[in-house]
Amino acid sequence: MQQDSENSRTVQSSVRLRIWLxxxxxxxxxxxxxxxxxxxxxxxxxxxxxxxGEQLLIPGLRGRIISHDGEVLAWSERRLxxxxxxPHLFDEAYAQRLEILTLNLPITLPGPAxxxxxxxxxxxxxxxxxxxxxENALPLLESEVLYVEMRLQRYYSTDNxxxxxxxxxxxxxxxxxxxxxxxxxxxxxxxxxxSLMRFAFSQKDGKFSRLFNRLFSDSGNGDDVxxxxxxxxxxETDEAP
Length: 241
Known about the structure:
The chain is of the alpha+beta class. It has helices spanning 2-50, 90-102, 115-118, 134-142, 163-166, 183-187, 189-192, 207-215; strands at residues 54-59, 65-66, 72-85, 122-129, 146-156, 169-171, 178-180, 196-201, 225-226.
């Protein structure tokens, strides 16, 4: 009987020992995994900091204002302008002009006779450059012969009698986002306001094509606002009754 009791205590001690060893192994494994994850995160951030490229902040589009019956009263669009960095030397400028011509872009290039007066300047090739033509322009955009600038444009329905109530927007100088200044634009600012899309862009492995895909995505756009049926959009006058 005494021997059975001693055997039972031995078995219990062995089980407890195995449990403690298992807990220790699990704890050690958890510590190793956490340390490895922290190291990988640190290494990733270090590599990103060292990688050639830049951080891009792309403003999203402001949300639309829609009437209760589905008519779009206000909306925003991104507009692109295309520019050419004209070299300082005439021969280089002439050669680049020929390269641009081969891209078949919807632009009007200055003639060779005008290049002398444009050397070393940035020349506007298209104030409203169609996004669909960006792919054709990629070779010279990546080599920085050409470059684009983006701007946000707010549009309103053609019924001018509604514009008074809809209000106006302006570009926030700090964020580049559209912000409501008056009317419904200001009243629904929290819903309509867009946000900045933050991207780490590396010219080495990201390429401009990926940037343009993101540029015209819906990410970062503000929310649409559908007006209640009782919303009055008629123009108020200051005339005495």
